[in-house]
Amino acid sequence: MAAYPMPQAGRPPPGTLASVAHREGVAGPSGRVGDRTTRLRRPGRSERSRMDREQALATFRDCVAEVLDIEPSEVVLTARWREDLDADSLAVVEITLALNDAFSFKFPEVDPEQIKTVGQAFDLVCGLLGV
Fold this sequence. Notes:
With 131 residues, the chain is mainly alpha-helical. The protein contains 4 helices and no strands.
């Protein structure tokens, strides 16, 4: 029988899965990894920290400004993509990818001709974020 070092009071023997769990802070009160109080679960939508509309607009402006190489203050809701911001179809694709990354969602397939203003695109983003 192998000799294991004696654990300190309240700690599992070193080198075991339970000791790693204890050290990492995922072991429950019993010290067991599978303890009901330690099961990790993904937070529901209502538990996630939610972004308000102003925070979403700031992030949206930053994404658009970075792609178009303009100042965020130039990204106003009434601006038209082609006429005011000189955004071509490639820029629209890049903006879509930047928004996907910034907001951690997948932008739905939308006909770019239907979204003519920054405000229309921002409303779509707000709908996806639920703000």
